[in-house]
Specification:
The chain is an alpha+beta fold. The chain has 5 helices and 8 strands. The chain has a single domain, classed as Nucleotide cyclase, GGDEF domain (Alpha-Beta Plaits, 2-Layer Sandwich). Helix 2 packs antiparallel against helix 3. The N and C termini lie far apart (about 40 Å).
């Protein structure tokens, strides 16, 4: 079963401020504990902001706004969640032995969502918007939220944006991107 949605996808990757953390953690339990702490915080933010957690992949967290219920303010929801995540990382770092940073990418557009498989069902998203959100994250800057021009255009409420300029994006070519800084009050 699948459906087509117009939505905004936010993808986040955790970055260790100690470059060797992921490789040298004393046990896998330490890594799992750190990820569980942060992803639980992100789950609470997603619920509060009205996003659907899609999945985690290692140290990546993917959520989407605008599904399973279509909403007009999907880009705003993803933007607010991403800003809240930056705060959550700061809060985490005040009490953790393992300070982390984060890169966040958001893109907006159409995607197909559905469940695949006959065993160990997996709800997932497919479409160019998912790949673009991933590229916004991977071509982004630590501690910043990079958004595609499609997301900038989909924002309903005013946000403080900084035009990053045109960047070369793997598999996409040149794209005009923006850094999301804060809501405008």
């Amino acid at each position: 079963m699948s459906a087509v949605y117009l939505l905004s996808v936010a993808r986040q990757r955790l970055l260790s401020t100690s470059k060797r953390f992921w490789r040298t953690a004393k046990t896998a339990l330490v890594v799992v504990g750190v990820l569980n702490d942060l992803f639980t915080r992100f789950d609470q933010i997603a619920e509060h902001r009205g996003l659907e957690k899609i999945k985690t992949i290692g140290d990546c967290y993917m959520a989407a706004a605008g599904l399973p219920v279509v909403v007009a303010d999907h880009a705003d929801r993803a933007a607010h969640m991403s800003l809240d995540m930056l705060i959550a990382i700061q809060d985490f770092n005040t009490s953790s032995e393992h300070p982390l940073n984060i890169r966040i990418g958001i893109s907006s557009g159409a995607a197909v969502a559905g469940i695949i498989g006959k065993t160990k069902f997996l709800y997932d998203l497919w479409g160019d918007v998912v790949n673009t959100a991933s590229r916004m994250e991977s071509h982004g800057t630590a501690g910043r939220i990079q958004i595609s021009d499609a997301t900038r255009q989909a924002l309903i409420h005013p946000f403080s944006l900084e035009h990053r300029g045109v960047i070369e994006v793997k598999g996409k070519g040149e794209m005009s991107t923006w850094f999301l800084n804060s809501p405008v009050k």
